[in-house]
Specification:
The chain has 803 residues and is α+β, with helices and mostly antiparallel strands. It contains 22 helices and 22 strands. The chain is 51% helix and 16% strand. The longest helix is centred in the middle third of the chain and has 41 residues.
Length: 803
C-alpha cells in the first residue's frame, strides 16, 4: 500500500495542473456539503442540551380556528392533576424588560417561567443555579451566556449581584450554558412566574400560557396525546362557554418546534448540495478516465514488466483517493470559513447560531464524503482500464480509447449536465418565487419611515391614564422637534409575527353558539398611526386626538374583517363589541383600513380590529406597556434621526430603552430575511454546480481532443479544414449534452415544487422557466465544448505527427 501511495503521489506531482484542478473542484463540492451539513447537524440533528430531550414536547390548545394556541391557568392545573402520561408541565410566558443601572438602558427580551421550568427541562446552570421553587415569590433572575458576556464581561462574581429590570432590583442566581436554547429563542433573561398570585388564576377563558411538557418514561407521543385529549373533552363538556372552541391538545416535539421554520429549508439545501457533490465526483472520475487514455503506453509497459491487473487498478484508485483526500482538506477549510460568514449574514432568529461550528460529527461527515468520492472517482477509471486490459487494447498506446471508454466519458458529461441543469432550474424557480414575494403589497409603506420599540416599566405604567400620558408626551415632543413629521403608536408592528386576538360580537345579531364566536386580530393604535405607517383608509377616517376615553367607543376594521361580517353593506357606522358583549361597550366602526400582513409577506389576510389607545380595554394595559411600537414619518430630510428619537424617549422617561430602531423598509426586509438567505444559498450552490459542470465538460472535451491528436492530425494532413475538425469534436459532444439537458429538466421539474414551497406557499411554478433554463444551458454547454475544441485544434498537424 505504501508503494502504491508513493507511486500515486509521484504521478500526481508530475501532473500538478490536473491535480490542483481536481482538488479545487472537489474542495468546492465537499466544502459546500460540509458547511450545509454543519447547519443541518447543529439545527436538526444535534440533540438539545437538556436531560432526555426526546421526551420534551411543546403543548398547545387545539382550537377550532388554529392548532397552536396557549393554555389558560385553570386548564393547566386540570392537566397537571389528571394526566397520567406526563411527568411534568413547565409553563412560561414572553416578557420584556428595560435593563438599567449597568450602562446605557437596554430593552431585553425575556421570559417568565414557573418554579419547576428548568427542572422539567433538565437544564443546569454553568455559574450559580437555575430558578427553583424557592424563587417563586422572590425577585430572582437567570441570565443567558450571551447577556452575561455582552453586558457583564463574563464577570465570575455576577451571582448574588442585583440588576435593575423595569425599575425593580432582581438578584442574579445563575448563568445558563452557552448552548442552552429557550423555547422562546430570543429571550436573554428568565424571572419567576408566580401562578398563585396571578389574577387570571380562576379565568378559564384567559389563554396566555405557553407550556413545555415532559412525557412519561414509558409514554409515547400518541399515548400522551390521547390521554390529554380525553381530559380536553371532559373540560369542554364541563365548561361549555370558556372551552367551547378547545377541541383537544396538540403536542409537538420541542426540538422540532424550535427549528420548524428552518427544517424544510435546510433539508432542501442538503439535497441540492448533495447533487453538487455528485457533480464534483463525476468531474474527478471523468478527468481520471480521460487521463487514463493518455497513459495507455505507461500502463502497457507496466503490464509488460509483470504488473497485474489488480496492481494497475489499485494504482488508479489510490490516485483518486489521494485527490479526494486533498479535496476533503480544502473542503474542511472552506466550511470552517463559511460558518463564521454565515453567522454574519444569517437571519437573527436562526436557531442555535452562536454554538454552530465544525465539530467532530461534521469532520467525520467530510471524511466520509472524501472516502466515498475517492472510491467512486478512482474505481470507475480503474474498472475502465481493467476492461481495456482484458480486451487487449492497451498494447502500443496508439489507440485513443475504445468506444466503451468514450461512452463512459460522455455518460459522465451527461450526468453532470443533468445535475447542474436541475439545480439551475431550482435556482430560477426560487428566484422567481422571491421576486413574486417582493412584489406583494404588505399593506403599509415600506420606506424610510422610522420605527422604534419601547417597553414601559409595569410598576409605573399599569393604568390606561399613565400609558396615555406617556404617549401624549412622546407625540408632543416629536411634533415639537420635527413639526413636519407624523407619529403614531401601535401595540404590535406589522409583520411582528406576534399573536393578539379577541372574540367579537355584534349587537344587532343573535349571540352565536360559544364555539362559533368570531375572532379578530386585536391592535391598539394611537392617533395618526395609519397616516404614519402609510396604511390606507378606504372608508371613513382614522383615529385622532378627539377619540378619548370620554367619547363614544370607536374602532377601525380591516378590509377582510369588513367583507367577512358586512359583505353587502358599508362597514362604517356599524357596531361591534368585544365578547362577551355584556362586559364591554359597543364600538362604532369609523374607518376601514387596508389589509396589513401580520405574520408573513405571503400569509393570508387577517381580520383586524383597531381600538384607540385612549380607549383600550383593561386587559390590554399589560401587553401595551410591554410592547409599544412607534412609527414616525418625517416629511423633510434629516428632520429627525434615530438618535433624536432615542433622546426624545429618554427625555420623557430615562428608564425606558428605545430598541429596534429601524425603518419600515427594514421591517419588511427582516421579515423576508430567512427567505432571502435561503434563496441566496440556493443561488450559490446552483451557480457553483454550473461552473463545476462547465469546467468538467471543458476539461473532458479538451482532454478527449488531446487524446485524439493523432486522429485529428491525420485528418488535417489529408485535407480536413480546422472548422470541420472543430465541428467534428462538438458534434461528438452534442448528443450527451442534449440527453443531459433533457434529463436535467425532467429531474428539475420534479424538484421545483418542493423548492418553491420552501420559499413561498403562495407561488406556483412557471412552466416557461424550464424553457428559458433549457435554452440558456444549451448555449453555455455548447459554448464550453466549442471553446475546448478550438483550443485543441490550434496545434499544427506536423507537430502532432512528430509527437
Amino acid at each position: 500500500m505504501l508503494k502504491e501511495i508513493r507511486a500515486a503521489v509521484r504521478l500526481l506531482w508530475r501532473n500538478r495542473g490536473l491535480s490542483v484542478f481536481a482538488i479545487a473542484i472537489l474542495g468546492l463540492g465537499i466544502g459546500a456539503a460540509t458547511a450545509v451539513f454543519a447547519l443541518v447537524y447543529g439545527v436538526l440533528l444535534d440533540r438539545l442540551p437538556l436531560r432526555d430531550p426526546d421526551r420534551l414536547v411543546w403543548m398547545y390548545n387545539l382550537r377550532t380556528e388554529r392548532d397552536r394556541a396557549p393554555l389558560s391557568m385553570p386548564d393547566l392545573l386540570d392537566y397537571q392533576r389528571d394526566a397520567r402520561t406526563i411527568d411534568g408541565l413547565a409553563p412560561f410566558i414572553n416578557w420584556t424588560a428595560n435593563l438599567t443601572g449597568a450602562g446605557e438602558a437596554e430593552r431585553l427580551e425575556g421570559t417568565r417561567v414557573a418554579a419547576d421550568f428548568f427542572a422539567v427541562l433538565g437544564a443546569q446552570a454553568v455559574v450559580g443555579r437555575t430558578l427553583d421553587a424557592g424563587d417563586e415569590h422572590e425577585r430572582s433572575v437567570v441570565l443567558t451566556d450571551r447577556l452575561w458576556n455582552r453586558r457583564f464581561a463574563r464577570d465570575p462574581g455576577i451571582v448574588g449581584r442585583s440588576i435593575i429590570l423595569n425599575g425593580v432590583a432582581y438578584t442574579v442566581v445563575g448563568v445558563l450554558p452557552r448552548n442552552f436554547v429557550f423555547p422562546f429563542g430570543q429571550a436573554e433573561v428568565a424571572v419567576p412566574l408566580s401562578l398563585d398570585d396571578d389574577p387570571r388564576r380562576e379565568d378559564r377563558g384567559a389563554n396566555f400560557l405557553r407550556v413545555v411538557a415532559r412525557l412519561g418514561r414509558d409514554a409515547s407521543l400518541e399515548q400522551a396525546r390521547s390521554d390529554l385529549n380525553q381530559i380536553a373533552v371532559r373540560l369542554r363538556r364541563e365548561y361549555p362557554v370558556d372551552d367551547a372552541r378547545k377541541i383537544g391538545v396538540s403536542l409537538y416535539p420541542l426540538h422540532a418546534e424550535i427549528v420548524r421554520d428552518y427544517r424544510q429549508i435546510l433539508w432542501t439545501l442538503f439535497v441540492l448540495v448533495s447533487i453538487l457533490v455528485g457533480i464534483g465526483t463525476g468531474n474527478l472520475a471523468n478527468l481520471l478516465l480521460i487521463r487514463g487514455l493518455k497513459r495507455q503506453a505507461e500502463i502497457s509497459l507496466r503490464l509488460a514488466l509483470g504488473a497485474t491487473r489488480a496492481r494497475v487498478a489499485a494504482l488508479l484508485m489510490t490516485e483518486g483517493a489521494l485527490l479526494a483526500i486533498g479535496g476533503g482538506i480544502v473542503g474542511l477549510m472552506l466550511a470552517s470559513a463559511a460558518i463564521p460568514a454565515w453567522r454574519l449574514m444569517a437571519p437573527s432568529d436562526f436557531p442555535r447560531l452562536p454554538v454552530m461550528s465544525v465539530r467532530t460529527p461534521v469532520i467525520a461527515f467530510a471524511c466520509l464524503i472524501s472516502v466515498v468520492v475517492g472510491m467512486i472517482a478512482g474505481a470507475i477509471p480503474a474498472w475502465g482500464a481493467s476492461r481495456e486490459i482484458a480486451a487487449g487494447h492497451m498494447v502500443t498506446g496508439r489507440i485513443a480509447g475504445s468506444r466503451r471508454q468514450g461512452a463512459l466519458r460522455r455518460t459522465f458529461v451527461m450526468l453532470q449536465l443533468a445535475g447542474s441543469t436541475a439545480l439551475i432550474l431550482c435556482v430560477a424557480a426560487a428566484g422567481r418565487a422571491l421576486d413574486t414575494l417582493e412584489r406583494y403589497d404588505p399593506g403599509f409603506a415600506a420606506d424610510d419611515t422610522l420605527t422604534v420599540q419601547l417597553s414601559l416599566p409595569p410598576t409605573r405604567y399599569n393604568t390606561r391614564d399613565s400609558i396615555a400620558r406617556f404617549h401624549d408626551d412622546v407625540q408632543q415632543r416629536i411634533a415639537t422637534r420635527a413639526p413636519a413629521s407624523v407619529a403614531g403608536a401601535i401595540s404590535l408592528l406589522p409583520l411582528s409575527g406576534l399573536l393578539s386576538t379577541a372574540d367579537v360580537e355584534f349587537p344587532d345579531r343573535p349571540v352565536p353558539p360559544p364555539d362559533q364566536v368570531p375572532q379578530a386580530h386585536f391592535r391598539i393604535a394611537g392617533p395618526n398611526y395609519f397616516l404614519a405607517a402609510g396604511i390606507r383608509i378606504f372608508a371613513g377616517r382614522e383615529f385622532d386626538a378627539s377619540d378619548l376615553e370620554r367619547r363614544g367607543p370607536v374602532a377601525i376594521v380591516s378590509q377582510t374583517f369588513a367583507r367577512r361580517h358586512w359583505p353587502s353593506a358599508n362597514a362604517v357606522g356599524q357596531h361591534l363589541a368585544l365578547a362577551p358583549a355584556a362586559s364591554y361597550p359597543d364600538m362604532q366602526v369609523v374607518g376601514v383600513a387596508s389589509d396589513v400582513k401580520q405574520f408573513g409577506i405571503d400569509g393570508d389576510a387577517t381580520a383586524d380590529v383597531y381600538v384607540p389607545l385612549h380607549q383600550m380595554p383593561a386587559f390590554q394595559i399589560g401587553p401595551v406597556a410591554a410592547r409599544m411600537y412607534w412609527v414616525v414619518r418625517v416629511n423633510q430630510p434629516d428632520a429627525l434621526s434615530a438618535g433624536d428619537l432615542r433622546r426624545i424617549v429618554y427625555e420623557v422617561d430615562p428608564e425606558i430603552a428605545a430598541s429596534n430602531v429601524q425603518t419600515l423598509s427594514r421591517v419588511l426586509a427582516g421579515a423576508m430575511a430567512p427567505t432571502r438567505a435561503h434563496v441566496l444559498l440556493i443561488d450559490v450552490f446552483g451557480y457553483v454546480a454550473l461552473c463545476l459542470a462547465l469546467l468538467g465538460m471543458y476539461g473532458a472535451t479538451a482532454y478527449a481532443a488531446g487524446a485524439r491528436r493523432r486522429d485529428l492530425a491525420i485528418r488535417a494532413a489529408i485535407g480536413a479544414r480546422r472548422r470541420d475538425l472543430r465541428w467534428l469534436m462538438v458534434r461528438d459532444e452534442f448528443r450527451p449534452i442534449g440527453i443531459g439537458l433533457v434529463a436535467g429538466v425532467v429531474a428539475g421539474a420534479a424538484a421545483v415544487p418542493a423548492v418553491t414551497r420552501s420559499v413561498s406557499t403562495t407561488v406556483s411554478p412557471d412552466r416557461w422557466t424550464a424553457v428559458y433554463v433549457l435554452v440558456a444551458m444549451l448555449l453555455v454547454s455548447t459554448g464550453a465544448s466549442y471553446l475546448a475544441s478550438v483550443r485543441a485544434g490550434r496545434a499544427e498537424p506536423v507537430d502532432l505527427l512528430k509527437d
